[in-house]
Design brief:
- With about 190 residues, the protein is mostly beta strands.
- It has a single domain, classed as lipopolysaccharide transport protein A fold (Sandwich).
- It is about 15% helix and about 55% strand.
- Strands 1, 2, 3, 4, 5, 6, 7, 8, 9, 10, 11 and 12 form a 12-stranded antiparallel beta sheet that branches.
- A hairpin with a 5-residue loop joins strand 3 and strand 4.
Length: about 190
Amino acid sequence: MKILNIKGLLIISLLSILLFVIYSKFTKENQVLVEENLEINEENFTNSNLIKGIKYSSKDLKGNEYTITADEGEIDINNTNIIFLKNVTAYIRLIKNNEIIKISSNFGKYNTVSYDTIFSKKVNVDYINNNLTGDYLDFSMMNNLLIMSKNVIYTNPNNILKADVVELNTITKDTKIYMYNSAEKVEVKSKN
């Protein structure tokens, strides 16, 4: 009987925390977010801060959609706005050209307030006929910016490019490529 009461108390506590987080998001002045959808079922709770089968969706004022899913996540006990994710897949649907950017990685760190996401380990980004792979990706929904770093390989139908950092504006498609040592050149190979 005590075990059922403890489990019930844990579920109620987690739901209270989630409601507080959702309430604080909607009361905070944030012009980027129009709507957000959080899908978590009660049976997905395995202990006080572990969640299985996570899906977050948000949309900015222009109608661009951001959806992120993960096999499981763990809420940071020091900051309940942060969720550490495993086996992550994200989609950015750009309404202007009806383009979809797909991001996948082994791990992620998602901020439920700012919607910023850091992807790590075997990060892969696919958009149009371009592909980016690397170790780390920092995505900012508010700034429409993807920053891929460490062991970056950029491929398109004509070229293979290796660099230290690639920045991509998801709206304008402006791309900046950097090397940590300015004396080094970006390595580009033709696929021909």
